[in-house]
Amino acid sequence: MSEFKPINTQEELDSILKDRLARESKKYADYDDLKKGAQEKEKELEALKAQVKEQTDAIAKYAEQLKGVEEKDKELESLKGQVKSYEINSLKIKIAHEEGLPYGLSSRLSGDNEETIKKDAKALKALIGENAPQVPGVSREPAATEKDTMKAGLKAALAGLNLGQGGN
Predict the structure, then answer these.
(1) Checking CA distances to 116, which of 54, 58, 97, 135 falls within 20 to 30 Å?
(2) Does residue 41 surpass a pLDDT of 90?
(3) Is the CB of residue 121 less than 8 Å from the CB of residue 95?
(4) For residue 130, pLDDT beyond 90
(5) Residue 99, CB-side half-sphere exposure with 13 Å CA sphere
């Protein structure tokens, strides 16, 4: 360390202060650059905040659309269930008709495919037997052959002819 020298003149004081101010100014020489950089960073931050807001809004909109899609999916699943139920009921009615069961008993048939419903219809038919009410349009007669059908048609045609018996 150097020894202390007292300041005797104004020029000495000005020189010391000038040196000291120069050293301090040198410390903050890049202050304007830092300030400019900070302002640029502030602008970038604002731009990023705007992008985040846009993305947040887009996500919220997408979430709302997704909620609508989920509701539509639930509705679709419900409608598929109804269609399946209608198809099964229709199949039960068809099988009941084929097996000669009354229409009212078609709802008593159980199963979820054609094979199980037919099995149940045959079991129900065996339970109620031949005394069951006849389903309109279903004949319990054995299927007629082509020869039998032709024979019956000829008989009907002959019966309709007026052969002129007994008088003219």
Answers:
(1) 135
(2) yes
(3) yes
(4) no
(5) 27
